[in-house]
Amino acid sequence: MLWYFTNMELKKFRYFNPVKIYFGDNIEKGIKEFIEIYGKNIIIVTGKKSQFENGNYQIISNILKRYNINYTLWNKISPNARYDEIDETISLKGNYNSIIALGGGSVIDSAKCIGAVIRNHKDIRSLLNNGNFNNLPILAIPTTAGTGSSVTQYSVLMDKKNNDKRGFAHKTFFPKTAIISPNFTMSMPAKLTANTGLDALTHLIESYLSTRANPISNLMALKGIKLIKENLLTAYRESENGDARTNMAMASLLGGLAISQTGTILLHALGYPLTVYYDIPHGLANAIMLMPFIEFMEEISVKRLHDILSILSLPELKDIFNTLNIKTSLKEYNIGEDIIDVFTNNVMDKKNLKYTPFEINEKIVTNLYRKNL
Ligand SMILES: [Fe+2]
Hints:
Layout: H1 7-11, E1 20-23, H2 27-38, E2 41-47, H3 50-53, H4 56-66, E3 70-77, H5 83-87, E4 98-103, H6 105-120, H7 124-130, E5 138-142, E6 154-159, E7 164-169, E8 177-180, H8 190-209, H9 215-237, H10 242-262, H11 266-278, H12 282-299, H13 305-311, H14 314-323, H15 340-348, H16 362-370
Parallel strand pairs: 1-8, 2-3, 2-4, 4-5, 5-8
Antiparallel strand pairs: 6-7
Helix pairs in contact: 8-9, 8-10, 8-12, 9-10, 11-12, 11-15, 15-16
Bound molecules: fe (ii) ion (FE2).
Domain Fe-containing alcohol dehydrogenase-like C-terminal: 193-372
Domain Alcohol dehydrogenase iron-type/glycerol dehydrogenase GldA: 18-182
GO molecular function, one term: metal ion binding
């Protein structure tokens, strides 16, 4: 019923994604091939703690040692990739020729920018303003199942001082290689499993609704939504369930591949202010705004929404939220009426709006937040 395309869709589209993907348990093979091509003086970018505690870092460093690779560790990345943390790497003196990013979305997004900073000896803001820069080759190893950043050309950066969070696309932000091993996600705590899994779900939903969607991204989006419906709760309840972790890793990968074609749309832009002003984790922020977003599209009869709802109905989505203990009212996070205008202004200048399948104005955005108070 769902696997059809209109003639219009098949007439003209482009699909491009240059990332080599190793899925499953072939970590060593992927690393070996990457270093053979891209060099043997590596900087490993990761977060401050969890990858050392759960042993993921040791798995990577042991492989590098076995192949006599020089590597330097840069483990200073916080949740939400930040300009100041990226710019700290300007001072790094070392003739690095490639980067390994080991972590969740903020680590991979940061690593994409750190490669550019090290390669060009300039701060990330001026590089992004100019747009004309080179990068180090990146090997991305995600340790969550949500971001999709390991296969996209995007980096989403947060500027706490100016209360802004926005995504940047650059052709050098595509990693050369992504190693998607569900084993790296086994130690994720339940809450992180929920938040990152919901981030993947919103990537898939937004990609399918995007006016840039193409027949290939659509197939990936619908399959990914089904995988999340069938596996997120199991991965949440049973952290070491291999099948659930594998299927969630696959769903996250499909979400990344799908948004590499389409980008995200209004929903991600609605979530950004929740993270910037109230420190709400990215995936949760999107999930909080998902229900009013879908209900509004039902009201204005966005046709393509029905394909999504025929796989994951609203009652099923509500059940998932209940089981994951997701509170969707803004009041639960102490967000009141007084900040909604600020949020709305923040949303209106985001590029994500452009490919949303309906005309957006300030009133619509304000009402989406108000509905959720
Ligand atoms: Fe996201």
